[in-house]
Each structure stands twice: as C-alpha cells, then as structure tokens.
Amino acid sequence: MHRSKWTLLILSCMLVLLAGCGTAKNSETTPTADGKAASNGETKELRDVKFVLDWSPNTNHTGLYVAQAKGFYEEEGLKVDILMPGSGGADAMVASGEVPFGISYQESVTQGRTQGVPLVSIAAVIQHNTSGFAAPVDRNIKSPKDFEGKTYGGWGSPVEEAVMSSIMDIEGADVSKVNIINMGEADFFTAVKRDIDFAWIFYAWTGIEAELRGEPLDMLYVKDYSDKLDYYTPVITTNEQQIKDDPELIKSFLRATSKGYQYTIEHPEEAADILLKAVPELDKDLIMASQKWLSPKYQDDAARWGEQKQSVWQNYSDWMYEKKLIEKPLDTDAAYTNDFLPE
C-alpha cells in the first residue's frame, strides 16, 4: 500500500478522533424499527453494528453471513449490517471509527501501525496463508527459479517484488530477470491469455475457479518457502478507541462471529447456501467448491478459530522491516490481541 494512502488515513483518524467520533459505542446504539429479538419470553432491542468487508463478498466472509442468518448475532443482542468498503477502503473506515469492525490483512495492519494508524487485529479468519504464485501449467513454472525470463502481472505493490525476491533467493535465482507489469483491471484468466505468465492469487478463489474452468495451474504457496511468509490474511480488525471504550461489544461480536465460522467449518455446503442466499449474484458452483476447500482451513491446527500467534506477527513484521517495507520495527503486542475471543 502506498505511503500517501496511509498519510491520508492517519490524518483522517486524527480528525475523527479529535471530533469525538472515534467511539463506535455512541454511534451504534440506536435500534432500528425492526431491531427486536425475543429473549426468555421478553423482547429486547438490538444494537446496530456495522461491519465492513475488504472486497466483494466471498468465502473468506462466509462465517459472518452464517452468524447473521443463524441468529448468532441476535443472541448477543446485535443487529449486524455487513457493508462494502467505501472509497477510502475498509482500513480507513475502521481506523477512524466510522465502523467498529472490518476485514483487513496482517500486511496492512503492520504497515498502518508503524505509521500511527490505530488498527488492531482481533481474529485471524484463516489460520495459514493460502496465497501464492500461480501459472498455467503450459508456462512450466515449477519453482521460483522458473520465474526468471517470465512476465509477472501484479498491482504495483512493493510487497510483491519483495516476496518474489525472498523465495527466489532461496534457489539462487535473480528477481531482476522477471518482467514485472501491472495487470490493471484484468482478472487472472484474462491476463494470462493476454500478456503475463503468472500472478499472485488466493487459491480458495482463483485456484478453485481454475479447477472449475478445466485450466490447471502450477501453484507455489509462499508459506512453503519461508515461515516468515505464513502470515494471517485476512484478519478481523477494530480500532484502539473501540477497545478502550467498549470492550464488551467486541466480546459479544466475536462470540457470535466465532459461532458462525465454527458452523461453517462443520457444515460447508449449508454455509455456502447461506452465502448464496445473502449474495445471489455469486457463482453457485464456485462458492460451493471454494467453501468445501476453505472450511477446514479457517481453524486448521489452531486451538480455536481466530487465534493469533505472537511469532507469526513477529516473523512477518521482521521480514517487512528487513525488506524496508516498513520504516521501523512493529510493536507486535499492540498490533493484535486474542483477549476478545471466546474461550
């Protein structure tokens, strides 16, 4: 993410916090006309809570929609509205207090916090990094060494070349021999037919789509080459002011969200149907196949869904600092917390 974006985000956060609007507690307490729920024979008002996605709805988000549809949020006294990100992005909306919760990535939280942005990661959506470099099998890219002489299509982030360099260095390969171009608005399948050989993808989405299209890929997961690259992506975030002012809301929200993801782990097909009902324009075959692939990976080898390790935050931030992607070391203890997850 470019430094100019983070500069604008810092200024936005400062203005909002100074105006006294950084607390989601005050802005989220007015119930809507239909914001009622029955509890022990009594009717209680639900608290409106906004949650902002990082991108259009997909299987990274299924647990949220399941928690919404199955009434887990209502059980906690919440009426959760899942939003698309505004023009400034999800991180800006959460950091400024416009919304209390959202989806981000460890990379973004790390970059932001080293520049004064008050984002805090409160849960890992997926326990291990499912991203990597992918190429159609006819490009014969079987290892990072094979990147040499090929064309990579990206989005212009310095992180891309840094990751590529890290895994190529292991095999004595030279990243300067890769032709790196910006893919623009083209999707992976269009770009590899047009002018690139490989790109960085999340397998749960683009990789599964390739399977359904009958277009086999060679996939090099970055976590397989370095422990430092097995970071959390995506994560659920809040902001420091929310933690200070209303920790009970965070606990309630995560209790319900955890139930949603646990249900999705145990019932992937039903969970996929719930996502499709909420967002009917999504491709049914892709959602169903993606959900079956991804559901076991939400919790994976962690003791509970959402749990984050200090070593993962330390390893990745150390790597970012070594690669000069951040200007100072990260205070990892302030960047994430497991304190609000249910036991």
TrEMBL record:
What Pfam families has UniProt attached to this entry? NMT1
Using the record's annotation, list all stretches that form the SsuA/THI5-like domain: 58-271
Q: Which UniProt keywords apply?
A: Signal
Keyword check for Transferase: no
Among InterPro entries, the record links this protein to: NMT1/THI5, SsuA/THI5
Q: What is this protein called?
A: ABC transporter substrate-binding protein
Q: Residues of the signal sequence?
A: 1-24
